[in-house]
């Protein structure tokens, strides 16, 4: 395990979990259509890949664990917020915004119906620039290229509130807060599933 100030310690086992999460998501997207269309006799072991979507949840758990450790290590620093947000911005925003520019503007220059069908409607791009695309998914306007970006929006929304939570709570209080949050979210998930309010929306929303 290695690490520096403001940097998550390197834990080899977590690298392995990241690799597993990547494979789970990849297999889900590449093999998922086969599990939907194959009958029981020909499906064989393909049904296992239908659970690959849980790899995204694994990413969220790993990210929350590492970010929380970074924030606790930085408590008391005069640059607590500045250091954290600058690192997140420099790591994510430039590449993300460059990708959005390619996704939303390049197809317009190509003017190809085939190219345009891969992106979300041009008029809906504001949701992506503001990291709100996970809420936008409920409207059903999702392109093949932009559909997966909902998970990044949830992560960025988490970054907005979690540093403040960690700043005002001790480790013991933070643990109690997390335990209460898990119970509350579990009740909320069961409630939504019973009522059938959101369907897949329960997977995309920050509060669920």
Structural summary, described in words:
The protein has 208 residues and is mainly α. It folds into 3 domains: 1-74, no CATH class; 80-168, no CATH class; 172-208. It is built from 10 helices and no strands. The chain has helices at 12-37, 40-43, 54-74, 80-110, 113-116, 125-129, 133-136, 150-168, 171-195, 201-204.
Topology of helices and strands:
Layout: H1 12-37, H2 40-43, H3 54-74, H4 80-110, H5 113-116, H6 125-129, H7 133-136, H8 150-168, H9 171-195, H10 201-204
Helix pairs in contact: 1-3, 3-8
Query: What global shape is seen?
Result: globular
- Elements, N to C (H/E): HHHHHHHHHH
Low-confidence stretches: 1-5
SS field, number of helical segments: 10
The average pLDDT value, as a whole number, equals 78
Helix content: 55-70%
**Percent range for β-strand residues:** under 5%
* Rg over C-alpha atoms, rounded to the nearest angstrom: 20 Å
End-to-end C-alpha gap: 33 Å
Largest sheet: none
Structural class: mainly alpha
**Tally of extended strands?**
0
The domain count comes to 3
Can you tag this structure with a few keywords?
208 residues; mainly alpha; 3 domains; 69% helix; 0% strand; globular; disordered N terminus
